[in-house]
Design brief:
It contains 18 helices and 20 strands. A hairpin with a 5-residue loop joins strand 2 and strand 3. The longest helix has 18 residues. The strands form seven sheets. A four-stranded mixed β-sheet has the order 1-10-9-8, with no helix packed on it. Helix 10 packs antiparallel against helix 13 and helix 17 packs antiparallel against helix 18. The radius of gyration is 25 Å and the shape is globular. It folds into three domains: 129 residues, Periplasmic binding protein-like II (D-Maltodextrin-Binding Protein, domain 2, 3-Layer(aba) Sandwich), CATH 3.40.190; 144 residues, Dipeptide-binding Protein, domain 1 (Alpha-Beta Complex), CATH 3.90.76.10; 231 residues, Dipeptide-binding Protein, Domain 3 (Dipeptide-binding Protein, domain 3). The chain is of the alpha+beta class. 30% of the residues lie in helices and 20% in strands.
Length: 543
């Protein structure tokens, strides 16, 4: 009885302490967070391993922990990182990297050229099954043989001594350094891994970056702690908390309550925020080198094998209406702040080399779309197999546009098109296996070269060609442009011809260019930007 009474008394004391006063939930939830940068991830981390990562949210977290030879700067240029410099031989293929001396892994061991060879070899090992190695390591001499298990190592990666590494390209490629900015070239710590297998827990996330992985609860929270021994100086903040919050409204509410310092805004929430005097000045817009598009699988959905069917779909999708009504709603406040989403009439976004505002896209034309569909044997959509447009979870804008595309196809062509949302990891899995017949998603540049869009996404042998598109004329133009060095004007002409071909073939219908809207708390200072997104948070401070 005495123990029970003491428990009640203790509870009453706690209630008196914490239940009274001026504090509210948001204030209590923020207690002790004064020097912790808090911003969410819209879906669960897809991996903890830089050699496995495919999506932007996860890359943003991983780039705080791991680093590579080179990196992007605020002028969107490739600059030295762990390599202090590089030299290119007269053959245009051989790159000799000189490493900074004294760069330490988070466990205190110095990074050497052997560590980079180990890390790149690990990502290129076919048994490791990196989903991105074929995208970004393909240009290293000997990669094809290693990937096909005809060799036991990459002959194009050679250690000269402790601080000198040579990487040889298979051919002169003007974008070669850009390839090395991708995380599958980041250096990992051999002794922290389980026989070179995938990194699956924070204890294995031993990098060289400005933050150390402290804890990870799947589907809940990733915590990164400042690396006080970072070679460029300790970060100004103590920690980064990346809470996994899949619901956009929950993310917005948590920002409003002071529980987040930064969050992405869905376009549908912009009008209300712009009208709110408390938050309107905290809205920031960032145009990214990324394209939102509709993909038509030319193999898995039989009607899409017919060029006329694909062209009919392209003509029946009104991108201007999707942007002006579904996304922006012709909101004058969005226009005033230059936050209007750019409509895509090309595959290459504006910041990518070779962008053309006058690319040969297919304009909206319902009458011609109906004629083409009927000529292909599907008048008013009759006889078409059931059709579903797939989209990812966690992004309300993507869902809205997918639903609007389905509505336009029903109204304009009589096609019974449904929508289906998949969890991001499941979506990526099906996408990688080329199992999605029809889908709405994004491709964002990893380097600002047309090869990263045209050749990689749409050539017959392109590793990211998930729609089974194939056109020999397109392939030949891309192949020539991919290895042309010293004549940029001629190279871009080749890519322009290739882009026009694929736009007219319509396996890939551009909708809009990504223009991120973010809420950023006034207490956040020192964010560094490139067109790719926020750079690692080495200079961020919090009031």
């Amino acid at each position: 009885m005495r123990r029970f009474s003491a428990t009640i008394l203790f509870a009453l004391i706690l209630l008196a302490i914490f239940g009274c006063g001026k504090g509210n939930f948001s204030e209590r939830s923020s207690a002790g967070k004064q020097n912790i940068f808090r911003y969410p991830i819209s879906t669960d981390m897809t991996t903890l391993d830089p050699a496995k990562v495919q999506d932007g949210d996860t890359i943003d977290a991983i780039q705080q922990v791991f680093e590579g030879l080179v990196k992007w700067d605020e002028k969107n240029q490739v600059v030295p990182n762990i390599a202090e410099k590089w030299d290119v031989a007269k053959d245009g293929r051989t790159y000799t990297f000189t490493l900074h001396q004294g760069v330490k892994f988070h466990n205190g061991r110095e990074v050497t050229a052997d560590d980079f060879k180990y890390s790149i070899e690990r990502a290129a090992n076919p048994d490791f099954s990196s989903p991105t190695a074929g995208d970004y390591l393909f240009a290293i001499d000997g990669f094809a043989d290693r990937w096909a298990k005809k060799a036991t190592e990459l002959k194009g990666v050679k250690v000269i001594d402790k601080y000198h590494l040579v990487i040889v390209a298979d051919k002169p490629r003007p974008y070669f350094l850009g390839l090395l900015t991708y995380p599958d070239s980041y250096v990992v710590c051999k002794e922290a891994l389980n026989n070179g297998g995938e990194i699956q827990k924070v204890e294995q996330m031993v990098g060289t970056g400005p933050y150390k992985a402290e804890s990870f609860q799947p589907d809940q929270l990733l915590v990164l702690a400042a690396n006080k021994d970072y070679r460029d100086g300790a970060p100004k903040i103590d920690k980064i908390e990346r809470t996994i919050i899949k619901d956009p409204q929950t993310r917005l509410n948590k920002f409003k309550s002071g529980e987040l310092d930064l969050t992405r805004i869905e376009r549908q929430d912009l009008p209300g925020l712009l009208a709110d005097p408390k938050f309107k000045d905290q809205i920031h817009f960032f145009e990214r080198p990324a394209l939102y598009y509709v993909g038509l699988n030319c193999k898995s959905y039989a009607p899409f094998k017919d060029r006329n069917v694909r062209r009919a779909f392209a003509m029946a999708i009104d991108s201007e209406k999707l942007v002006n009504e579904t996304l922006d709603g012709k909101n004058p406040d969005i226009q005033r702040l230059n936050g209007v989403t750019p409509i895509a009439h090309s595959i290459l976004p504006p910041s990518v080399l070779g962008f053309r505002a006058d690319a040969k896209y297919i304009p909206f034309n319902v009458a011609e779309a109906k004629r083409l569909l009927a000529a292909a044997g599907y008048p008013d959509g009759k006889n078409l197999p059931p059709l579903v447009i797939y989209h990812r979870d966690g992004q309300a804008d993507v869902k809205l546009v997918a639903e609007a595309v389905a509505t336009q196809l029903r109204q304009n062509l009589g096609i019974d098109c449904k929508t289906q949302m998949l969890l991001w990891a499941a979506y990526l899995d099906k996408h990688n296996k080329k199992e999605l017949d029809f889908f709405h998603m994004r491709w964002s540049a990893d380097y600002l070269d047309p090869q990263n869009f045209l050749s990689l996404l749409l050539s017959t042998t392109g590793v990211e060609n998930r729609i089974n598109y194939s056109n020999p004329e397109f392939d030949a133009l891309c192949a020539k442009g991919d290895t042309m060095v010293g004549n940029d004007a001629e190279r871009l002409k080749l890519y322009a011809q290739a882009e026009d071909i694929v736009l007219q073939d319509a396996p890939f219908v551009p909708i809009y260019i990504e223009k991120d809207a973010e809420l950023i708390s006034p207490r956040v200072h020192g964010l560094r930007e490139s067109v790719f997104g926020h750079l690692p948070h080495t200079t961020v401070s919090l009031e």
